[in-house]
Amino acid sequence: MSEEQSFESFGLSEPVRRAVAEVGYASPTLVQQATFHTIAEGKDVIVQSRTGSGKTAAFALPLIDRVIKPARHVQVMVLCPTRELALQVAGEFERLGKFADVGVAPIYGGAGMQQQIDALKGGAKVVVGTPGRMLDHLRRKTLDVSGLRAIVLDEGDEMLSMGFAEELNAILGMLPKGRQALIFSATMPDAMSRMAARHQREPVTIALSSDHVAPDGIVHHAYFSASGGSVPDLLKVLEIEKPKAALVFCNTKAETEMVARGLQNAGYRAEYLNGDLAQNDRERVMGLLRDERVDFLVATDVAARGIDVPHLSHVIHCGFPESPEAYVHRSGRTGRAGRTGTAISLIGPHDIGNLYLLRLTYGIRPIERTLPSAAENRTRIEAARVESLIAAAGNVSDDAMVLAKRLLTHDDAERAVAWLVERFVMGVREDDVMPPVPRVSVSPSLTAAPEAKSEPRSNGRPPRERAPRSERVESEPLRKIEVRHADPKASDETPGEEVGMESLELSVGKREGVRAGEVARLLRDVGMLAKSEVGRIHVRDRVTLVSVRAEKLDALIESLAEVKYNDVPVSPRRGDVAEAPEAATAD
Ligand code: AMP
């Protein structure tokens, strides 16, 4: 294999060359260089290559270019461990085969059978899918493989570890004898070698050197703590590492849900992905991640296999994996195609053995780090709070500035400032083990009769008539700066009464398990509202009232029209402020 190989040296046909240029691949990756000619010559191969190395194109390119013929019947079958990977592989075939008349049919469980039968009848030359559903089609004879020229097992070791050995053997046994068999696998367990010996003919083994099996371009960090992967520890790690977008791995489905909730409660945009989710929910969550409307996807190994989302900067092993192979696979979700990434592990006492095994097997030695002590943590939070407060403070009137200066020269200034801080800045999350930095917004609220000179000058929002009773300063004729968490929370104010806001009424409430935080997310994710466009949220027994920017209300009602909350239609409508309850509450 020569490092200088280029796509020109592959001698690609014009339609494939055009597609490669359109996709934007400038030069072949190592695995593509190492395998192209062997596959193009029709040989069976076993390719040991790390995930994220460009292995999909490594088999798609020679198959499209040399193996697939013009006849309209199924000629290539690719088997993948998960639906997500199957969709990605199908997408790569579609992109690279765009000008070569390659019809692709994705065949995976959870999607409609008839739709797949129609796609097959439509003359697909490539079928890509999961073993269970593929076998289903073969047994029902809705998939004709009599003209099959090549079969690919993608992430073969993963399919075996997920218990697909029986299906794989059954499928391979039903294919025509002369077909080419390509096995791609990051690791080569004995069961994989046995399967290769049974179903391949004189395969060429192409193992990229071991340092390429473990993802390169990835920095590995390990945080040690007594509790291993607890949510508070994870929150501390996020505070330190500040990942932009991450895949967070847990070892069980239940943990994914719990960790995602923990992240959401701390204000992060997080979702979970596990095998219990219905197909459309999985696709919705993946869509949110791809569109960067979710920053943290908490997943099990199985659910996340094959996920290729280029902007993931971090993989976090919240639950440390039992096998080194799983660590390699998980970590390969970041650092895709030459990018750099960071893999972070939370290590508890029980994980030390597995960490050692990782070192022995793949030579991966995560840089050891320790979580900050409670005191260090507090110092950091205080500093962050000060920064947020300074950042949130807009322009103030000259009067206020004069008064502030006077105050600071007073002997008791510290206590007075502490009182202001306690009254207006702290409070909501003080008991949290690791409170996130509060996202604060400053809104003017007046207690004295406003004079033009004394108006706050720069925040561009009109003053409200009266501050809510609980927040009024009764004794001093001073302007009060109200600093509040941007998170939705209970208040005495009725949704829609805030200036520039109107009330949206949803026909679901506490009875349907509605929580204010989830409503806020719904409005952001489905209604496409910015955080600042959502105000107070009151969850009542049967209805929920939300303040939203007046000009967004109509569009919002339209976009929520079909939405259900726990299977109950939310039936959005304009809320009637006058009828709104006096003592409404939010959770
Ligand atoms: P894979 O290992 O097939 O999952 O590929 C990982 C990523 O590499 C995907 O996002 C591909 O689109 C990308 N990729 C594949 N081949 C190339 C190439 N020759 N140059 C740049 N990126 C590539």
What report would you give on this structure?
The protein folds into three domains: about 5-205, 3-Layer(aba) Sandwich (Rossmann fold), CATH 3.40.50.300; about 220-370, P-loop containing nucleotide triphosphate hydrolases (Rossmann fold), CATH 3.40.50.300; about 425-585, Alpha-Beta Plaits (2-Layer Sandwich). It has 21 helices and 22 strands. Helix 2 (about 30-40) runs parallel beside helix 3, helix 3 packs across helix 4 and helix 6 runs parallel beside helix 8. The chain is globular. Mean pLDDT is about 80; it is low at about 425-495 and about 580-585. The chain is α/β, with parallel strands linked by helices. It has a seven-stranded parallel sheet, sandwiched between helices. Helix content is about 35%, strand content about 15%. The structure holds adenosine monophosphate.
CATH superfamily of the largest domain: P-loop containing nucleotide triphosphate hydrolases
Q: Sheet bearing the most strands, described?
A: 7 strands, parallel
Briefly note the CATH topology name of the largest domain. Rossmann fold
Supply the number of structural domains.
Answer: 3
How much beta, percentage-wise? 15-25%
Short description:
The chain is an alpha/beta fold and 587 residues long.
List keywords for this structure.
single chain; 587 residues; alpha/beta; Rossmann fold; Alpha-Beta Plaits; 3 domains; seven-stranded parallel sheet; globular; disordered C terminus; binds adenosine monophosphate
Q: How do the strands and helices of this protein lay out in sequence?
A:
Elements: H1 14-23, H2 30-40, E1 45-48, H3 55-67, E2 76-79, H4 83-96, E3 104-107, H5 113-121, E4 126-129, H6 131-140, E5 150-153, H7 156-161, H8 165-173, E6 180-185, H9 190-199, E7 204-207, H10 210-213, E8 218-224, H11 231-241, E9 246-249, H12 253-265, E10 270-273, H13 279-290, E11 296-299, H14 301-304, E12 314-317, H15 324-331, E13 341-347, H16 352-362, E14 367-370, H17 374-392, H18 398-409, H19 413-424, E15 440-445, E16 480-485, E17 501-506, H20 516-525, E18 534-539, E19 544-549, H21 553-559, E20 564-565, E21 568-569, E22 573-574
Parallel strand pairs: 1-6, 1-7, 2-4, 2-5, 3-4, 5-6, 8-13, 8-14, 9-11, 9-12, 10-11, 12-13
Antiparallel strand pairs: 15-16, 17-19, 17-22, 18-19, 20-21
Adenosine monophosphate (AMP) binds at residues 25, 28-29, 32, 51-57, 308, 310, 336-337.
